Amino acid sequence: MSKDVTVRMRRVYDAVDPDDGARVLVDRLWPRGLAKDAARLDEWCKDVSPSNELRKWYGHRAEAYEEFAERYRAELSGEPGRGALERLRGLAAEGPLTLLTATRELELSHAAVLLNLLREGG
Questions:
Q1: Could you give the CA distance from residue 86 to residue 83 in angstroms, rounded to a whole number?
Q2: pLDDT in tens, 27-41
């Protein structure tokens, strides 16, 4: 991926920013209390989110983040994750991409893992 690619992550509840570019929800579950039209999404990419089993195991425990990230990357190496990740790479190549999640702690989320993968090109 070129250095000109702009990928960022934000909470889906945050106000839309004109610099968001393509807005893609990367959660498996729809965010609580958010009307579908209020989200202003370009896409909802459920297949790039962690499996329910992995999500429940992790539980956003900071001490488990590194192992979670490793397991999540492994999930993304198979289908349907690999195809969904390629879709995000394509969107990022077209212009700015904002990964949206309902997660409160962005730095400890699957969106942070995706952001790093997309920025690394891996």
A1: 5
A2: 999 999 999 888 999
